[in-house]
Amino acid sequence: MASVTSLSDSVQQHLASALSATLPEAAGADPLLRRSDRADFQANGILALAKKAKANPRELAAQVVGRVATDGVIKDVEVSGPGFLNITIADRAIVENLAARYADETGRLGVPAAANPGTTVIDYAQPNVAKEMHVGHLRSAVIGDSVVQLLEFTGETVVRRHHIGDWGTQFGMLIQYLDEHPHELDHKASAEDTAASGEEAMSNLDRLYKAARVLFDSDEEFKTRARRRVVDLQAGDPHTLATWQKFVDESKIYFFSVFEKLDMEVRDSDIVGESGYNDMLAETCRLLEESGVAVRSEGALCVFFDDIKGPDGNPVPLIVQKSDGGYGYAATDLSAIRDRVFNLKANTLLYVVDARQALHFRMVFETARRAGWLDEDVTAVQLAFGTVLGKDGKPFKTRAGETVKLQDLLDEAVERATAVVRDKAEKVGLTEQEITENGRYVGIGAVKYADLSTSAVRDYKFDLDQMVSLNGDTSVYLQYAYARIQSILRKAGEARPAAHPELELAPAERALGLHLDQFAETVLEVAASYEPHKLAAYLYQLASHLTTFYDQCQVLSADNPAEVVENRLFLVDLTARTLHQGMALLGIRTPEKL
Ligand code: ARG
Fold first, then answer.
1. Residue 593 pLDDT > 50, yes or no?
2. Which pTM does this prediction carry?
3. Which residue numbers delimit the DALR anticodon binding domain (predicted)?
4. N or C: which terminus of the chain carries fewer CB neighbours within 10 A?
């Protein structure tokens, strides 16, 4: 499928060939093209090349200018400053290029599909069984889902893995308690009402957990029975496993209700929790021990690293198997790597996990490298994210210091967003049903956008007031930009969007058009670097260009000649499509009326 080349691509090519014609040794060099305020683009690459060739940069630049082909794309190129090139694009080229993209039925908006797509296994949205999800799980889900959309859009094969915490000694106590109190997980809510059953599931689990804990701490005999259960569980006793499964199923009811509220697809078949690797653990240890990657130390199987030391200066090992024979988090992750590399045939392993687990992943990845499971062809990356803070700048908790219930948090976001939507509903003519639906899209979009619009590694403040604000860098600002365009298109009546390359463009039209042109390279860059915040920034700028455009250019004015109306409708329609696609890549909806 031929994709539509972007203008910056063709400018880049024009410059590169002029450059290598002038200075053969510069063949393949990057002219360092940037969007610029002085002209449409500026190229800064000649300075370094001149230095290398011991040439005068301004003279070299002037020679390059003489060789730049003016074939309709580049209208003007001139030397500026110490040897920069300022490049102006022909209006016609801007419109023709965008028109090709507009006509492209694949709807890819100029984004080429990867020539050699690989397989990425992405580990994200991994809550823990029998525990309340917290804001960290929300971040992993939101960032991970956006990266999935981005990678799939570029043609990558993506395998999703929700590595839920579903195994460990804590289950002994829970299983024993449930066996002794068999009705603790019964439901009143109907299975169809996912939100209600999700909430009920979590409160059941929470209540059971607390009661089991109290008994465990106060009743020695219960403690002994609970410990025996851990042994039964590890030995695969069928009855014990069946009870354990009840916890997993109950937790999934809760997880799915949260993901549904988040308007996010999580498939059951992609949930492969820690227990999914149990069969591989012994072999993983054997392989590591036989190859000498891991060694026995005080009975435990350990991997040591020169550069990883504790506060006392002693090396801190990665413990693959404890001295009592038990396996932990690391053994599971190492087994998962083997599964993902050798069975799922991944080229890239991506982990969307809290930055506080960075040391764990560094040690796990290094161990896998030493074992030969990871190499230049198969790489592993932790897409680490920062902590969610409350308005007070401290880690986000309730006043009592407890985990904030995600359901409540999302409900509150939707409630506030619905109030914002309702305020304008009459003017826009929204039905009650549309108000409810838009309230969800705006509220959930706000939460996602706040998370995705800052660089993942940074901590960010969870501030609902700011998130649903109509002004500033928020999702609702972008959603309004989209809906406003739809309203114009509806009002256009007979007039249809159509490109008119013969027209001269106003400055705001050029700025909007050139920014639209950058969509493809932005998406590719963002997908390659796993940085959705750069896509958010791009979309925010797009909406800002649109605002300036409205200020300076009337679309449906009776004073406009028909071609101008059509051309402007075309520009705004392409802007809407770009906003819609870009937001979808962030996992955010764009309602038609708002
Ligand atoms: N369940 C873990 C947590 O809640 C996250 C799992 C991350 N993924 C992994 N492969 N270790 O922190």
1. yes
2. 0.95
3. 478-594
4. N
